Please model this.
Amino acid sequence: MDTSAKIFVAGHLGLVGSAIRRRLEAQGYHNLIVRSYEELDLTNQQAVHDFFAAEQPQYVFLAAAKVGGIRANDLYSAQFIYENLMIECNVINCAWRYGVKKLLFLGSSCIYPKLAPQPMKEESLLTGLLESTNEAYAIAKISGIKLCQMYRKQYGCNYISVMPTNLYGPGDNYHPEDSHVIPGLIRRFHEAKKQGLAEVVCWGTGSPRREFLYVNDLADACFQLMLLYNEADHINIGTGTDMTIREIADMIAATTGFSGRIAWDSSKPDGTPQKLLDVSKLHGLGWHHKTELKEGLKIAYEDFLKRYQ
Model:
């Protein structure tokens, strides 16, 4: 992938896309193509065709997606499945139609069955029922994997799929209700500290276990896989370790300086009991994460403070 190659980073303003863009720029790639949602609606088939016809990108990082936490996935399930399916279908089909050399599709660890054996191997896909609270998003992401595989099978396209674990870091969404767990808790604990509250109430029991990966590490893995990985099967990206939501809440409270009590509302859903990825395939290629959670949370909180202010 020559540094002068035309590379389309779809979703460059989001958490993942912005990190991939930073990684490419740091490596000297200077011919990046980016479009905001206002400039290009990826759910609009004609608009995507017109864009590819005009720009003729050689490589594509498909990081654009409609994303959110448990509440958003549950409330807006029709939007989540429709918008993500449309984005994937439009971009992947146009990548084939306009001769893209290689495409990397970003999925999510929620593609795996709710009760998949832990840690979850790539082979666990489609072996059981999905977690109901994010079923719509998971089905869309599974469809993206299959689209890449079928375009490879029928047309010989070099399209690869990567499945990251839970992500956090600079550029995250800190919406008070629709964000993922780490950015949501960063905002909640920060505001509680600011307001002098004695208690913060968190959703669920705090017992589910989750794995977290700093987004710059994900971007590095995606860059390396774009250069080295050419297989039809998807590949997991994570750290290989997890912790309970209670433990992560305690760590975030300490990071933000909140010293009050943390209460748990067990009437709210927990989601999947455990989501730990088996990353032995990725480790076998020589890639390991670099940023430990304590360090990453500090950077994420600094990012929040800049953007929150």
The mean pLDDT is 95. The longest helix spans residues 77-97.
